[in-house]
């Protein structure tokens, strides 16, 4: 598991779960406070939270098993479907991750969930090396979050991701 010292991540966007932040260089979530994450997991009854932790810890096989069981119990869970796509992204099956995020995006058009899916889709594109598509997705996520007057931490996360992707795109040959 990757732990980051608090001094090195004060400007890292929150990742939506205690003890987890987004690395502004890789745009991937990292555990920065294991105690905070473990306390939140202990208090949670949502199987998606445990799956997220397993993904962050690099336990992809265990995450896949728990995800399969959770999806059997709740096959329509939006959050579990996101983590299914994230599992594909984490295991370098980028085409499948992008396909699943696009399916979720089609179902989320015009809803409050749409910017979240654009953000995840942008991350999948970025990690896969499709930086131009990442810029497009992050820009859409940012625009929608501003339009929907989302929490400042979400707007910041989208702004950081968009700027990073633009910087990488500008440096590309």
From TrEMBL:
Question: A Pfam family for this UniProt protein?
Answer: TPR_19
The record's Gene3D superfamilies line, in alphabetical order, gives: Tetratricopeptide repeat domain
Question: Could you tell me the superkingdom of the organism this chain comes from?
Answer: Bacteria
Query: Which InterPro entries is this protein grouped with?
Result: TPR-like_helical_dom_sf
Task: Please give the name of this protein.
Answer: Tetratricopeptide repeat-containing protein
Look up and give the organism this protein is from.
Arthrobacter cupressi
Phylogenetic classification of the source organism? Bacteria, Bacillati, Actinomycetota, Actinomycetes, Micrococcales
């Amino acid at each position: 598991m990757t732990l980051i010292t608090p001094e090195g991540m004060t400007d890292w966007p929150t990742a939506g779960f205690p003890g987890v932040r987004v690395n502004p260089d890789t745009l991937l979530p990292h555990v920065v406070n294991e105690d905070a994450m473990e306390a939140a997991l202990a208090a949670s009854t949502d199987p998606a939270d445990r799956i997220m932790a397993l993904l962050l810890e690099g336990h992809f096989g265990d995450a896949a098993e728990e995800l399969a069981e959770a999806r059997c119990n709740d096959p329509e869970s939006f959050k579990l479907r996101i983590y299914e796509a994230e599992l594909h992204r984490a295991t370098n099956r980028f085409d499948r991750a992008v396909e699943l995020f696009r399916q979720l995006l089609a179902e989320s058009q015009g809803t409050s969930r749409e910017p979240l899916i654009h953000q995840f889709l942008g991350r999948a594109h970025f990690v896969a090396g499709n930086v131009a598509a990442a810029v497009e997705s992050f820009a859409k996520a940012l625009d929608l979050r501003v339009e929907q007057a989302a929490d400042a931490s979400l707007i910041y996360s989208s702004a950081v991701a968009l700027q990073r992707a633009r910087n990488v795109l500008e440096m590309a040959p």
